[in-house]
Structure formats: structure tokens, C-alpha cells
Design a protein that fits this description.
Radius of gyration: 13 Å
Largest sheet: 7 strands, mixed
Distance between the termini: 40 Å
Strand content: over 45%
Structural class: mainly beta
Length: about 120
């Protein structure tokens, strides 16, 4: 079994920062793209950022310049550094990874930004 476990969410004031982590564990042979998505109340889940095993990144326009995605392949972990947070960033953030060619999701971590 493969699991993705997120950590690092919480409550922060507007303008603040948070760092999310997502560690993959279990029977892992290969991890390709890893990424973060988020879902705000009453809205569809949306892509935030992705990173390939080679380090190529992609960001949603709404987070460019504020969020940075990175990964540690040796630890099977992906990170999301979120700076200059705004109330509209409030959502449940989900980790996603293609592990052994299958898409896996974490359980989600709540990020709440107060104004």
C-alpha cells in the first residue's frame, strides 16, 4: 500500500507564510509528477502547483510569485512554501503524486488565512 501524508497546515494571518509537506510511504518503485491541489468551500478542486521528478515546475496563475513547490526525491517528499498568504488562499490542500504509475491523493490539510 502507498500512502501520502500531508502536514503543515494551520491558521495564519494575511501576509503570513506556511510550509506544507507531503511524504509518500509504502511499496514505492517510482514517483513521477508530484503536486498540490486545493479546494475551497463551495468550489471545485483546483491545481496549485506541480513538480516533475526532474524538478520542472508549474504553477496556477493565482499563486505565481508567492508559492514555491519543491521535492526531495531521496525522502519521497514534496513541499509547498506559501508566502504572502491571502484570505482567498483558504482551502483544504491536497497532495497528489503519481506513484508506480497510479495517481495517489493525501487526506488533505486545512489552511485558513484570516484577514
Amino acid at each position: 500500500q502507498v500512502q501520502l501524508v500531508e502536514s503543515g497546515g494551520g491558521l495564519v494571518q494575511a501576509g503570513g507564510s506556511l510550509r506544507l509537506s507531503c511524504a509518500a510511504s509504502g511499496s514505492i518503485r517510482r514517483i513521477d509528477v508530484m503536486g498540490w491541489h486545493r479546494q475551497a468551500p463551495g468550489k471545485l478542486r483546483e491545481l496549485v502547483a506541480t513538480i516533475t521528478s526532474g524538478g520542472s515546475t508549474n504553477y496556477a496563475n493565482s499563486v505565481k510569485g508567492r508559492f514555491t513547490i519543491s521535492r526531495d526525491n531521496a525522502k519521497n517528499t514534496v513541499y509547498l512554501q506559501m508566502n504572502n498568504l491571502a484570505p482567498e488562499d483558504t482551502a483544504v490542500y491536497y497532495c497528489n503524486a503519481f506513484v508506480n504509475s497510479f495517481s495517489r491523493w493525501g487526506q488533505g490539510t486545512q489552511v485558513t488565512v484570516s484577514s
